[in-house]
Every structure is written in C-alpha cells, then in structure tokens.
C-alpha cells in the first residue's frame, strides 16, 4: 500500500503519515519545508515506516509532474492520494492583498487539480485507489476573516463531490473512492500563527473548539477503511449543516454574536 500526502512536513500531514504507516502503508511526503520533511521522515523511520520525501511546490504543475515520476520510480504506483496542503491568511477581505488571494487558491484548490490529473489515470487503469481531501468546516459556514480561506475550501469540497459523481457516471464498476474530511479549527501552526491568534475574540472558548491533528488523521484513516464519503471532525461539527438548513441566517448570526468566539479584525470597522 502506497500513500502520498501533500503538506507532509508537519501538522495534519505528519499525523496522517503516522496513522497510515501504522496500517502498513509506505509513505511519500511532499512539502516545501525541507527541515520539516527531514524531521517527520526521521520520526516515521524510528517507528519502522518506509518513507520517501520530496521537496515539491504543489502549485507548480511542472514540479508536480517531475516529482510524480520520481515517486513512481521509488515506490511504484500510488494507492491513496491525500490532498492536505493548505494555507490560511486570516485577514478581512478588504485587507487581503492580491498575492494573498492568489496563493490561497493556488495552494488550497489548484494544487488538487495537478495531483489528481497526475495520479487518477493509474488508479482508473488499476480500478483501485482512494483520494482523500482535507477540506474544512469553513467550507460549510462562512466565517469572518476567512473569506478567501472559506471560499477555497468550499471549492475543494465541490471539486471532490463533483469528481465522485463524474467517476460513477463515466467509469463502470469504478472502485476509486473519495473521502472529504471537514475539520473545525485544528491546533496547527496555521491557527497558532501570530497574525491569526491576535484576532481571536475569546481565546478561552476558541481553545475548547480546537481539535488536534491526530484526531483529523484518525478520522481520515477511518474514512478510507470504511469508504466514507464525508467526515466532520469533531463529529458534532456536523450539526453545522443541520443548523444551516433549519435556522434562518439571521438566527445563526445572533448565536455567533452571543457565543462571541470568532475571528475579529485587529481594527474595528464601522
């Protein structure tokens, strides 16, 4: 069993590698963070895993094609593709620079197309494979200061849903599965970045909502083993879908104001 994950140098990617290696998978880690790749690989090898690392920019299709060829040479064909790489800026939409927006969509969305186009053909040829997408609950519910991030995660949620539909429509007896994991806020460097943490209104309540990377990884492994289409982490986060369907938008905003656990701009805008 061969698994490849983007964003494999730390956070969710690292925990995904650990969990899947415990299931016997050989691991390929892709990331731009060379030091993080080395540290994660060393940790995995101490645990007895077979692991290869590739310092790859997943937003660059040429780079993806190059390292995909290296991966096949080193490990053979891929069984599980995990699109995990992501970035979060955490600014009000009017403070976002053009580069912030472009980079968010290049990493969080466009990179998925490059990896899928690279690895899906062999999965279809072998009639076997699994594509795991690490999305976010921000794909399901708009959040202040996460306009670009939420939009990008909504895009990959729709991408995976449409891909699943297309696979069933175009390929008879298709055994290529898709799983989308939608975590709430995860305790990684994305959330712990100074630019983000300084904008959290109620840190005490926010910390109660955090999930750990290993929880997300465990849910992803369970999703693959059980061929689940969608998973929310924690499972109670799934009530966001229900509340969105049942409650008026103004009621949801009122609840958010009451709880007062949210991102807020560093400078209040009237």
Automatic annotation (TrEMBL):
<dbReference type="InterPro" id="IPR036291">
    <property type="entry name" value="NAD(P)-bd_dom_sf"/>
</dbReference>
<keyword id="KW-0521">NADP</keyword>
<dbReference type="InterPro" id="IPR020904">
    <property type="entry name" value="Sc_DH/Rdtase_CS"/>
</dbReference>
<dbReference type="Pfam" id="PF00106">
    <property type="entry name" value="adh_short"/>
</dbReference>
<protein>
    <recommendedName>
        <fullName>Short-chain dehydrogenase/reductase 3</fullName>
    </recommendedName>
</protein>
<dbReference type="GO" id="GO:0016020">
    <property type="term" value="C:membrane"/>
</dbReference>
<keyword id="KW-0560">Oxidoreductase</keyword>
<keyword id="KW-0472">Membrane</keyword>
<dbReference type="InterPro" id="IPR002347">
    <property type="entry name" value="SDR_fam"/>
</dbReference>
<keyword id="KW-0443">Lipid metabolism</keyword>
<dbReference type="GO" id="GO:0052650">
    <property type="term" value="F:all-trans-retinol dehydrogenase (NADP+) activity"/>
</dbReference>
<comment type="similarity">
    <text>Belongs to the short-chain dehydrogenases/reductases (SDR) family.</text>
</comment>
<comment type="function">
    <text>Catalyzes the reduction of all-trans-retinal to all-trans-retinol in the presence of NADPH.</text>
</comment>
<keyword id="KW-0812">Transmembrane</keyword>
<dbReference type="GO" id="GO:0005811">
    <property type="term" value="C:lipid droplet"/>
</dbReference>
<keyword id="KW-1133">Transmembrane helix</keyword>
